[in-house]
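[SOLVED] Need 3D model of a two-part complex

Original post:
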Amino acid sequence: MPDRKAIHREKPKERFSYDPTRVLNKLEEYGRRILEEVKAGRNPYFDIPTRGLNNVYFDEKRRVIRMGDKLSRRYFLNVAHARKFMQTLLLMAYVKRLVSENKHASLREAYYANKHTIPGTKENTFEDQRESDPIIEDLERMMGVLREEMHLTADRRGYIYGDIVIRDGEDEFNTSKLGMGGWAVPGTVEHLQFPEINVDYALVVETAAMADRLIEEKFPKKENALIIATQGQASRGVRRLIHRLHYEEGLPIIVFTDGDPYGWYIYSTIKQGSINLAYLSEKLATPEAKFVGMTMDDIERYGLKNVTEKLKGIPPNKKGGPTGDYKRIIEEMNYPWFQNREWQRQLKMALKMGVRIEQQALANKSLEFVAKKYLPEKINNGELLP
Amino acid sequence: MAEAKQLFKEFKIQSVSEFFRRNAAMLGYTGKIRSLTTVIHEAVTNSLDACEEAGILPYVRVEIEELGREHYRVVVEDNGPGIPEKYITHVFGKMLAGTKAHRNIQSRGQQGIGISGAVMFAQITSGKATRVITSTGNDEIIEAWVKIDVDKNEGKIVRKEKHPNPRGWRGTRIELEVKNVRYVRSKQGVYWYLKLTAIANPHAHIELIEPDGKLIVFPRSSDEVPEPPVEMKPHPRGVLTDDVYRMARKTRRNTVKRFLIGEFSRISDKKVDELIEYIAALRLIKTVQDKTVQEQLYEKLAKGNVKAVLRSFKGYTKVVRQVAKMMEKPPEKLTWQEAEEIVEAFRYMKFLAPPTHGLRPIGEENIEKGLKGILKPEFVTAVTRPPKVYSGGIPFQVEVGLAYGGEIQSGFELFRYANRVPLLFDAGSCVTTLAARSIDWKRYKIDDPERAPLVLMINVISVHVPYTGTGKQSIANVEEIYNEIRLAIMDAARRLQTYLSGKHRKMAQVRRKKTFEKYVPEIARALSILTGEPEEKIREYFMAFIESHFAAKEGVSENA
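Solution:
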């Protein structure tokens, strides 16, 4: 069968890399170093890459948001650091137990498991989950290890549907044979393996409603595609899954969101990573992802003008502006990865027209329009935005 | 002193006892508690002064024996130089003739009649003579019973005995029997008076035996006998008509001019010439009828335009010549009126500030010793300000001591002194109280001044302490004195503040250390899990590390 599609599976660029002993070794290494420092009469410390915007930059070559090299040193013998120092070690010990016992815990479980009153004081090791969560992020940055690799799971969100076989521990299943609801992506996808991949590409869909529509219209089967529903902003599990499917299995990634600043931001995070998780971009981001829609051009091309909605906020040329959606669009225009003709054109059009367009507005044509015409046409003709 | 002179006149006419009763307030004999304190005060002051002049470290023992209701025997014994036999009546008998009543000298005795007043008080209330036992350390001890001869205004020995002195005892012991007084351990009582006296006289060892037999010792905390004050020539601005009049009678100079130059400080030949012009000008101004013109002339004179004032009168040279003539007559011929004129002219003239070498402060070191020795505080500091001048010519000096914490009970306490003598009454109107109250103690880390364990002592030193009222227990609110007291307090308070913040630092250091120590068990457990080393060992490593870190930090700085 001649290859009539513009999109098809490529050669893998990364290998399955999950190795619990690596995490365990790192933990022990850090613990030993601390102990050596104290024995030598020196103030022990952790070097933790600083969080926040001022330690984040866009790597032009690899095209991802990356963490800078600014470090903050967390000492034991410093009134301002001592508590965090103790908390860091507490969570490190906890992670060691989790990984070596091959158990997983949620962030909240990690908080409760380590919260107790320090003997002889009225002080708790952790007063609040807001104290433990940042320490876990610190550990990720410090050791260059994913939270998931430490067996700490994030909230799960998102599901997939398509003709691929997944091996999850002792279970093995095809995600197109689990019913219309597909397979829910767990918090940790590190250990998953993919014995069989029978699709040409993965279509990442913002809304569950649209994903359900495509499944009902048998789009995955007809177009040989895997549907990944993010259900809003993509969770870490979904982003890691997308990354792995692309780099380990060579699946092209195509993103389909609403035509509004929020949808474009979802695309941006999948593609380049986010500022918050900049230190994980190399494991979470997929810079080769492409964007199919919704675009501003679609409005004209498919005659959708009457189903657009007005942007919220004040336009930049009006008094008090820009605010709301307008402000968001202008911010996005300044992102380094949107510095290309196509995206600048889209964003400028959005500002000029002052409207947004939802994925489901395509139902205005007909329910099957999106699955039969819109997507196949654009994808197979390679009408994708970078 | 005009008042005193007046009194003296009356005193001649009426009986001594009558005089005494009438002027009890001025002499310090009002109220049952205060009268007893005054008796003690006079006796102790005598002892301290005598020791000071003889360069002896004083040992003073006060004993109060209750003989009946409001009836006590007071015994004061010292190790002073003793009194030669022929001076006994002089010391204990002469009213208004004390050795320093009219000397221009900073003295403890404020009342003018001193111990003879106490003898008088005993005589009036109990009818008993005062028993004096004294020896100069020679081979005899003299025991004498002294009364005051009210007709002659003289002391009279009613009975005398001589005893051998084989051990060479030296000192004076006086016993007075007094009635109508009461011993109370209040802040106006004897106990309090002696305590405050001990603080201001750290070179003295003072003991008190209370009526119930309890012995209280205020030990000596300094071995340095203060130098006795020297007599200073009075400054023209600091004298009254009576002083000039009386001094003129006593002087051995030949002329008024020589008398003025010789007996006063800051008066030269040239100043006398100036004085002549001022007196002449004042005489002439007084002849002017028109009040407003007169006022203008006074103002001109106050500005120092004496020549211009003189020139506005015809034939002023004649008046000047008259005054000049007065300056050449013998001083004993100086009339009261002329003395008045001189003093008035002094008020208009400008003089150099008076010499201050006659002032004898306790000294910062000795104040600190005194406060430390008696109050046992944890912190003490003292400030002696340089001498200053008030109302144009009267030198004075302010000293302040500050004691904090230790055995001091909470509650702010002010100890007031004038020339080292504790002031126990009329605190409310005293300039020291006003100045102390005006300080914002919170600025000096005393958060709750009402409850802080803080003692503030203030000593105002001057030849003429400006007392309010006749009681001489409260210093007038003179601006210059008020300001000096404030400056001294603030200086001392700053040092206290530095001390207190140091204390806070130390406490913070201990807290800081705890901050680290409390985490050690948690850290040890975690590290034990991570590295496999025994928990107990890791704990030891960390504790040793904290210990060595803080030991190294001690006394240096604090960064941890």
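Edit: Chain B touches chain A at residues 512, 515-516, 518-519, 521-523, 525-527, 529-531, 533, 538, 541-542, 545-546, 548-549, 560 (CB under 8 Å).
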